[in-house]
Amino acid sequence: MVRRGVYRGWIRLPSRWFAFAGFFLTTLAAAFAQAQPPSSVITFSLPDAGRSADWPVAVGAVAIGGRPVRLDSPVRVQNGWVQTTTITLRNVSPKTIVSGGMGFVFPEPGDGTEAHPRAACWSVQQGQVPKLVWLGRDGVYHLPPGWERQKPLQLAPGAAIRLTFTSCGQDTDTALASGRLHQAVLTFLTFYFADGSRWSAKQYALPPLAGTHAWRMVSRDEFMRPARSRP
After folding, report:
1. Whole-angstrom Cα distance, residue 38 to residue 34?
2. pLDDT by residue (tens digit) across 6-20?
3. Tens digit of pLDDT for each residue in 84-110?
4. Fewest CB atoms less than 10 Å from the CB: which of 116, 141, 161, 172?
5. Comparing C-alpha atoms, which of 86, 99, 106 is closest to residue 57?
6. Quick one: three-class SS letters along 120-180?
C-alpha cells in the first residue's frame, strides 16, 4: 500500500550533476562580469562655485542617466556616461541669452600644452553666436560653415535649459577604461546676450563700439544695467 503525503526523504543525484552545475554557474558569472561595461570613479567639480552668485547663469541639476550627481563627491560611472549626462542651467540675469553652453575638462590626461592638450567634451550647441562676433577688420563677416543652420535661442530671464552631451564621449570612454580619468571639471562656454554683450571666462564685456573691434571689459554691475541707462 502506498501512503500519500509529504515526502520527507532526500533525492540522491549523481556527483557529476553537481560538477556540471558548478561549471555552469561559474561560466554564467564570468559571462555576466564580461558583459558589464568598464567603470571608474570620477569626481565632478565646479571651480569658483563660491562666487556663483555673481554669474549670469546658475548651474542646477547635474545628472547621469537621470540619476542626480553631487558635485565634489566621487561617483561611479561607466562607458557611455557622457552621452547620458545632462546639466540644467537657469538664466539669472536680466537679459535674454542667445547662445551658450558648458563642457567637461579632464585635467589628468595631458598637461594643457598644444602638444598634449587636456581632454574635453562640450555640450550640444545651444543658440546662434551673434553675427557681430564674426566681423573682421576688413569689414566682412567671416561666418563659420553651418552658421545659418544653427537654431536660434531665446532664453529669457528666469528660464532654464537642459544641456546634453550626445555628440561626444568616445575618447572619454577610452581614457576611462584605461583608468586615467578621476576628475571632471565643469566649465562654461562663452554666453552671448540679446543686447550683444557677452560673458566669457567669467568676465563681462560689452560689444565693440562702431568702427572698433575690441570688446569692452566692464564690471558686473555695468553689465547688468539695461543698455538704455548706460552713459
Report:
1. 9
2. 445 545 556 554 455
3. 999 999 999 999 999 999 998 888 766
4. 116
5. 99
6. EEECCCEECCCHHHHECCCCCECCCCCHHHCCCCCECCCCEEEEECCCCCHHHHHHHHCCC
